TrEMBL record:
Primary subcellular site in the record, as a coarse category: cytoplasm
Record keywords, A-Z: Acetylation, Cytoplasm, Dioxygenase, Iron, Metal-binding, Nucleus, Oxidoreductase, Transcription, Transcription regulation
Signal sequence bounds: none
Subcellular localization(s) per the UniProt record: Cytoplasm, Perinuclear region; Nucleus
JmjC domain boundaries: 145-315
Major enzyme class: oxidoreductase
GO cellular component terms attached to this protein's record: nucleus; perinuclear region of cytoplasm
Listed GO MF terms: [protein]-asparagine 3-dioxygenase activity; ankyrin repeat binding; metal ion binding; peptidyl-histidine dioxygenase activity
Entry cofactors: Fe(2+)
Assigned EC number: 1.14.11.30, 1.14.11.n4
Pfam families: Cupin_8
Name of this protein: Hypoxia-inducible factor 1-alpha inhibitor
Catalysed reaction equations from the record: L-histidyl-[ankyrin-repeat domain protein] + 2-oxoglutarate + O2 = (3S)-3-hydroxy-L-histidyl-[ankyrin-repeat domain protein] + succinate + CO2; L-asparaginyl-[ankyrin-repeat domain protein] + 2-oxoglutarate + O2 = (3S)-3-hydroxy-L-asparaginyl-[ankyrin-repeat domain protein] + succinate + CO2; L-asparaginyl-[hypoxia-inducible factor alpha subunit] + 2-oxoglutarate + O2 = (3S)-3-hydroxy-L-asparaginyl-[hypoxia-inducible factor alpha subunit] + succinate + CO2; L-aspartyl-[ankyrin-repeat domain protein] + 2-oxoglutarate + O2 = (3S)-3-hydroxy-L-aspartyl-[ankyrin-repeat domain protein] + succinate + CO2
Length: 359
């Protein structure tokens, strides 16, 4: 991994999180046929008890780890679509509808920056029962179209959900936040996905404890030092922070460094909590033929920038610098469309081999 790797885990086995079948024999909760195939290789993310000192070291070092026994969302482990439909209340929910399995995020506020930008999914506000109907319709028609509910938990939820929420292991997570001087909890996003849904690779500027509640998700992470392999969209583009590479069919002419990408992966199931460090890329897929998935994440602001900066800078600090340069140029030029041409003029032919003079 990027800096010190304190744990080398075994290759994840499909038998992890096994469930007991009718025979009493433990059956694997998932198998390899439920994973999509990609061109790159991955190493496993360690699965550890939250009491294991190696888990603490990984989080301190901002490296991912799956924690198997935090009880973080224990009261929610009974949630399924029927329970939520009964108890979640009559608020509005953001539901994305995509033309295929990929839900590429886009920032609606940045859409005006790119002429002719056509999002590959659309967001609709609807009641929970409408979402359930929509999901059933899509399942019945069996086409490419899919739906994904992604809604910040708010005070419109019903009493039973509030009780479940208050029963989360706030003691443990508050300690995690305090120990690392992270900022405030900004939101809990509830995600309810159909089997096979994919959230393509992107990074967030927040720390994330990703708590799996129902079904299994495959999470492939890449450290911030793989920026050059993943080719994020420009900062002013609606798909800022998302990789431009199509993992299903990479275009190596446009994105040659994608050949060098190496991921870290884990399949998380009910009760698992994956720590996704700030600025780490993550690609997340609900397993094929795995049924509905339910997740709640916990997003925290990062720790404040230290007063004394230590060199060499870490990869994520360089990503933050690049983001700030793009933003400053956009403001200085008064037009985000001029940022790319100016950066090209500034760099092309000047930095490739600066020691050789042409006479
Ligand atoms: O679970 C997903 O599909 C995406 C979640 C995600 O990107 C996040 O929690 O940051």
């Amino acid at each position: 991994m990027a800096a010190a790797t304190v744990v080398e885990a075994e290759k994840p086995a499909a038998s992890e999180g096994a469930t007991a079948g009718f025979s009493g024999v433990h059956e694997p909760a998932w198998d390899d046929s439920q994973l999509r195939r990609y061109t790159f290789s991955t190493k496993p993310i360690p699965r550890l008890s939250h009491t294991d000192p190696r888990a603490e070291m990984l989080i301190n070092n901002e490296e991912p780890v799956v924690l198997t026994d935090t009880n973080l969302v224990y009261p929610a482990l009974k949630w399924d679509v029927a329970y939520l439909q009964e108890n979640i209340g009559n608020g509005d929910f953001s539901v994305y509808i995509a033309e295929n399995h990929k839900f590429l995020y886009y920032d609606e506020k940045k859409m005006a920056n790119v002429e002719n930008f056509v999002p590959k999914s659309r967001r609709l506000e609807m009641k929970f029962s409408e979402f359930v109907e929509r999901m059933q319709q899509v399942q019945q028609t069996g086409g490419e179209e899919r739906v994904y509910l992604q809604q910040t938990l708010n005070d419109t939820v019903g009493k039973k959900i509030v009780v479940d929420f208050l029963g989360f292991n706030w003691n443990w997570i508050n300690k995690q936040q305090a120990k690392r001087n992270w900022g405030q909890l900004t939101s809990n996003l509830l995600l309810i996905g159909m089997e096979g849904n994919v959230t393509p690779a992107h990074y967030d500027e927040q720390q994330n404890f990703f708590a799996q509640i129902k079904g299994h998700k495959r999470c492939i992470l890449f450290p911030p030092d793989q920026f050059e392999c993943l080719y994020p969209y420009p900062v002013h583009h609606p798909c800022d922070r998302q990789s431009q590479v199509n993992f299903d069919n990479p275009d190596y002419n446009r994105f040659p460094n994608f050949k060098n990408v190496v991921g870290y992966e884990a399949v998380v199931g009910p009760g698992d909590v994956l720590y996704i460090p700030m600025y780490w890329w993550h690609h997340i897929e609900s397993l094929l033929s795995g049924g509905v998935t339910i997740t709640v994440n916990f997003w925290y602001k990062g720790a404040p920038t230290p007063k004394r900066i230590e060199y060499p800078l870490r990869a994520h600090q360089k990503v933050a610098i690049m983001r700030n340069i793009e933003k400053m140029l956009g403001e200085a030029l008064g037009d985000p469309r001029q940022v790319g041409p100016l950066l090209n003029t500034m760099i092309t032919g000047r930095y490739e081999d600066p020691q050789e003079e042409d006479d």
